Amino acid sequence: MMLDAQNKKQPDLIFRRMLVLLMLFVVFGTPFAQAAEDSKASNGTQVLEAFDRQQVQRVNQASTLSDHKKHLIMFLLGVPLFILLLITGGLGIATGIFGKHLFIAHMIFAGLTITLALAHVIVGLVWFFPF
Q1: Mean residue pLDDT across the chain
Q2: What residues contact residue 100 under an 8 Å CB cut-off, 6+ apart?
């Protein structure tokens, strides 16, 4: 019987101790948490500033692409485009005039030609439109 009374008081005592610990943490733990947040905020600001500096450097490097290099890239896009265009035309002539069964190959090469042509146009407009 005596043990039963002590077991009933035990959870109440544990609850009170936990409540006191929680109150102590709220009162004394808040300044430490705020100090940690302040240091994280200043550290986060430094990280963002470093990324911003790197982005400015990358933009400067990207804008220094010479006209000669741009023309070379456009040429390197144009050569396969011209080859694909000739292949597509040849397959179209073989299909239409000579009756060969090459229509699917013709359509595949036509799709590749259009895709490369769009890339060529977009790059040309982005680099050379304002002249």
Answers
A1: 80
A2: 94
Contact 65, 108 (CB under 8 A): no
What crossing angle do the helices spanning 67-96 and 103-128 adopt, rounded to 10°?
A: 160
Provide the 10 A C-beta neighbour count for residue 99: 8
Q: Pull the structure tokens for residue 109.
A: 């090469």
- Domain ranges, ordered by start, for the chain: 1-64, 66-126
Exposure class string for 16-38: b at 16+ Cβ within 10 A, else e: eeeeeeeeeeeeeeeeeeeeeee
SS3 for 129?
Answer: coil
**Residue 130: DSSP 8-state:** T
pLDDT, tens digit, 9 for 90 and up, residues 30-80: 666 665 555 555 676 777 777 777 776 666 655 667 889 999 999 999 999
How many Å apart are CA 117 and CA 72, to the nearest integer?
Answer: 16
- Of 61-65, 78-82, 97-101, 103-107, where does mean pLDDT reach its minimum? 61-65
